Amino acid sequence: MKCKITNKKIEPFMSFGKMPISNNFLKKEDFKKEYFFEMEVGFSETISLLQLINHPEPNQMFNNNYPFFTSSSQFMVKHFKQYADWIMQNFLKPNSRIIEIGSNDGTMLKNFVKSGYIVSGIEPSKNCADIANKNSIKTLNSFFSTNLLSQLESFLGNTDAIIAANCICHIPNLEEVFKTVEKLLSKNGVFIFEEPYLGSVFDKVSYDQIYDEHIYLFSVTSIMKIAKIYGFELIDVIEQATHGGSMRYVISRKNKIVSPNVQKYLEKEKLKGHDTLQGCLKFKNDCEKSKEKLVTFIRNIKSKNCNIAGYAATSKSTTVLNYCGIGTKELDCIYDTTKEKIGKYSPGKHIPIVSYEEFTKNYPDYAYLLAYNHKDEIYEKEKEFSLRGGKWFSHVEI
Ligand code: TYD
Questions:
Q1: Rounded to whole angstroms, how far apart are CA atoms 126 and 213?
Q2: 382 CB less than 6 Å from ligand 1?
Q3: Using one digit for the tens of pLDDT, what is the confidence trace for 93-118?
Q4: 353 lines ligand 1 (CB under 6 A)
């Protein structure tokens, strides 16, 4: 197996088994034709990059009915406002142009539009792009590639910030991303993106960040090397609390001042072995232990005749539920706020998805928080559940 970036050999080191498409919440009549792939991960020692060996084609995942909307979390809406403010303060001048890759429903770009900047969103999922355009946030319904340049004429060599969040790790062809960035970025422009961070995933054993859409799991070491390959430089990194632990990367053209943060994280990753295959093998062992612990924990609850419901039908829960073999015998249903998911069934394990409004009417003994990254927001919203003796748990906290 070859690395998608260096074309050198990568070492497969772990398989999570057969996985469905993580966001393919489906109807009963579609169970029989559900698509599965072997979710194996490998590591390229040359660029210290963890990546999926096989994955579905992007258009199988990001299509007309992508059921994820950034605006579904108030915490994320607030986070994107702060992210936008930080970019405006540090990198923009009046009339700067900004492009967001994977702009979803326009939650992030809205902040720039309000402040009078010229923006273009790029979003492959039509339903999300339509919402943004309806709200007057100019969005092209497409994947980000050089094919788009003719539609972005006024942005060529003139874009002060190309930004993304939880998106770059979804794109198999990073060479094409950097080629497109190269054409669009102004002389002092920056390419800034936030992605789930390998350091947090390894430390917390939050292996559910690995799923079909997340083709890569980046670290500071890997991004530093990748930027170099494509003629850019990593000039700053800032850790983020989002998605259970993310990293913000700031990339620019060469010969700019590099923040000491970069060196700090490079050393930290080296010390922890997060830049080697050895580190991945430890992670594999940790995942197996975590699976055993979760399965035993759930078995104990069920042996006391208690019932369990899942809370928040996240994409990442597809990995945990399928890897650990948790299905309808263990979870009665999963409560969620997304209307596109309600009334359907979870990918692979076919657990019914029920409106979160039903949760209060039918409290389970235990609730498995599948969106542990939104813990504060959800605990606050559902505080009555705990007050009435309900117990929360999640695989990263038992
Ligand atoms: P997120 O962790 O962003 O998901 P993913 O793993 O897919 O990136 O969580 C989004 C899902 O969680 C979405 O299906 C809506 C659901 N959710 C709730 O049901 N209630 C809530 O209060 C929040 C914040 C999310």
A1: 17
A2: no
A3: 999 999 999 999 999 999 999 999 99
A4: no
